[in-house]
Design a protein that fits this description.
single chain; 390 residues; alpha+beta; N-terminal domain of MutM-like DNA repair proteins; 11 helices; 12 strands; 27% helix; DNA N-glycosylase activity; damaged DNA binding; multifunctional enzyme; hydrolase; EC 4.2.99.18
Length: 390
């Protein structure tokens, strides 16, 4: 799922792709989207973007003299499981383009599209950052650090550190793959109590005898968890491309896959936290590991896997697009949260063959006999996006 770095990369893409382009007309929403209509129309306007944590702000700014006269409009986007922006010719829109901004004539018309295969993403009018989210781990590091350390009495820090890292009140921009990479680098068990991990950082002060360059060198050589919450996402942004991605074989995601050390890697173990999200780690899971939870180790492709691991790779429904099928083949995070009503993933991907017993039941039904049947599905739930606990 897109995390802080992906939102920042998306804002960079929008600003580069839309630089010099003049948009015009009304904003078009797909009929299947449940998001609000965007009441904006202008004969000429610019589009710009900025990001903060797991949110992206898109600003529509009318040019001087544009008709009808109106103020700029800002939208806040949450990418959900699969949101992204693409620029495409208006006569060749990408599938699942749920919001579209068209360039003004003359010249070949283009469309900036918010593309969301799974439709978990959404946008809000008004342009205000969600008030419950903390400072951005990428752009507001000092505020972020202070916000965490002065709130260690909060009950979220009674939980395992892997769960606390998804709470966007304190770790705005951190998600599933980032928490795995950060904890792995420090060899912190994911189910260690969060307060135990963070309490020592309140007392951490560099020696006053060190010069500034020595302090910087010491931080780079021995970063603490909060410093890695800033520097690890920054590494992903510096990779370029699109950051986290599920599509196998695409060059845009090759650098990201090569960068990963823990998340979904062969030899790593995994457990589900109490929110149903998979945490990848190496070694001891920690004292707060879920009771009865079985740790599964990532094996190479040629190794036989158990039934629990096979559930992680359940294929998508047969009626979805080829692009969606590609998305299901990628990194192992996604398949864990309960799918909302009305989305396109309601069909059981494993449709059983009709057995002789099934034929007999159908015959009974056609003859007017009513025989109650229990319908059993074996589709694993999708992995949830972080909400207020993330």
């Amino acid at each position: 799922m897109p995390e802080g770095p992906e939102l920042h990369l998306a804002s960079h893409f929008v600003n580069q792709a839309c630089r010099g382009l003049v948009f015009g007309g009304h904003v078009e929403k797909s009929p299947v989207s449940r998001n609000p209509e965007v009441p904006f129309e202008s004969s000429a306007y610019y589009i710009s973007a900025s990001a903060r944590g797991k949110e992206l702000r898109l600003t529509l700014s009318p040019l001087p003299g544009a008709q009808p006269p109106r103020e700029p409009l800002a939208l806040i986007f949450h990418f959900g499981m699969s949101g992204s922006f693409q620029l495409a010719p208006s006569d060749a829109l990408p599938p699942h383009a749920h919001l579209r901004f068209y360039t003004a004539h003359p010249g070949p018309q283009l469309a900036l599209c918010f593309v969301d295969i799974r439709r978990f993403g959404h946008w809000d009018l008004g342009g205000e950052w969600q008030p419950g989210r903390g400072p951005c781990v990428l752009l507001e590091y000092e505020q972020f650090r202070k916000n965490v350390l002065r709130n260690l009495a909060d009950k979220v820090f009674d939980r395992p550190i892997c769960e606390a890292l998804l709470d966007q009140r304190f770790f705005n921009g951190i998600g599933n793959y980032l928490r795995a990479e950060i904890l792995y680098r420090l060899r912190i068990p994911p189910f260690e109590k969060a307060r135990n991990v963070l309490e020592a950082l309140k007392q951490h002060r560099p020696s006053p005898e060190l010069t500034l360059s020595q302090k910087i060198k010491a931080k780079l050589q021995n970063p603490d968890l909060l410093e890695l919450c800033h520097s690890v996402p920054k590494e992903v942004v510096q990779l370029g491309g699109k950051g986290y991605g599920q599509e196998s074989g695409e060059e845009d995601f090759a650098a990201f896959r090569a960068w990963l050390q823990c998340y979904g890697m062969v030899g790593m173990s995994s457990l589900r936290d109490r929110h149903g999200r998979t945490i990848w780690f190496q070694g001891d899971p920690g004292p707060l590991a879920p009771k009865g939870g079985k740790s599964h180790q990532k094996k190479s492709k040629g190794t036989q896997r158990g039934p629990e691991e096979r559930m992680e790779d359940t294929p998508p429904p047969s009626k979805t697009s080829s692009l969606t099928r590609m998305a299901w083949k990628g990194l192992p995070e996604q398949r864990a949260a309960q799918q909302p009503e009305g989305t396109s993933f309601q069909q059981d991907p494993k449709v059983p063959r009709v057995t002789e017993k099934g034929k007999r039941r159908r015959q009974w039904a056609n003859s007017g006999c009513c025989r109650p049947q229990k319908i059993k599905t074996d589709t694993p739930p999708l992995e949830p996006e972080e909400t207020s606990a993330s």
